[in-house]
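Q: What structure does this chain adopt?
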Amino acid sequence: MSQTNTLEYLTGFDNEHESEALPGALPVGQFSPQKVAYGLYAEQFSSTAFTAPRAKNRRTWFYRIRPSVLQGAYEPYTANGDIKTAPITDVITPPDMMRWDETPFPKTETDFVDGLITLAANGDAAAQIGLGIHIYRATKDMGNRHFTTADGELLLIPEQGGMLVATECGLLEVTPGEICVIPRGMKFRIDLLDGPIRGYVAENYGALLELPERGPVGANGYANDRDFQYPAAAFEDAEGDFELITKFGGALYRCDLDHSPLDVVAWVGNSAPYKYDLSRFNVMNTVSFDHPDPSIFTVLTSPSETEGVANLDFVIFPPRWMVAEHTFRPPYYHRNVMSEFMGLIEGTYDAKEDGFVPGGFSLHNAMSPHGPEAAAFEKASNSDLKPERYKDTMAFMLESRYAYRLTDYALNSDTRQLGYANCWQDLKKHFKP
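A:
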């Protein structure tokens, strides 16, 4: 018997939620009674230390058919050797500005786990700093396989195809233009909704993602709490041959299960998977002059111990009005102490109108100079500065205080554009003393 619900979502970011698939499954007044309703087991899922400050503490109580300890012994999983974890030391990453075309789909039937490829990482997963960046591709459902990572929380950024993310807390349908965050250690399965899927993954080793402060913007704007959606409880009471693949300490392991691990009948807490529709981001842009810093487009942030310097900022460049007067409107030329990995979900990006394609990505590491290509510079320098709606676009950036190190796959991939730097070679000298 399976209880499912893909239509009802709990809303609100980082608030305590509760959901039950059967009436009365949630205990009232306490979390762990002597006997739980329906013969369920109480199990706490903690994403932070027990003693983390109340405002930072993340935990959820599960009321499940079987406790998680009912699993077989682990053994190495070697079917996918393309998943890496920081620190990456097998190749040396040069300081060049780099860009790649989209990653092709596998030629054989492949599910989400076996289709993961690591592109870059920084920091150290064991020290819980930095992040890893992967591409996911899948042409078939995971079936009776499930996946979890003990190394970091996952930010999924679809670029092509919709997917059903079945988790211990319930079901989320996630399509391009949306994102999904899965807590570190949460078990899940990904099935295809309408054909092959492809997208990006940020595996955050550091502080959990949260909403950035708005500062002088005030109480409203950017991403609003109410627009983050959590799943309603849904459980699978299924027995048979199941497999759990776990990423731990940078390595993959597998074990057998005799039941579905998605058997949570009810849950209450604030550590749960959630999704967010990027079109709901309320852009706060300039209406006078100058190009504002990209930090105004931050959806989620993983802070570091240094205030204002992020372990990871997830930034988007969505459809928006360009209004600034007497201003060079695209991003200005700059060098930055932060490292920038960019991807494109749809359309074009205003500073790179040629060569930066959906499914592709670029890397500008710490202090590497970058900015508009030559054609974009000439266009922006001579265009009529009337208000303009920049539409049919969605790019994103994974910005980090730590320099990214590439995997051998990314550095030597056939999709790497070896002539990327040529996009600036036609910049002319306009100096007139």
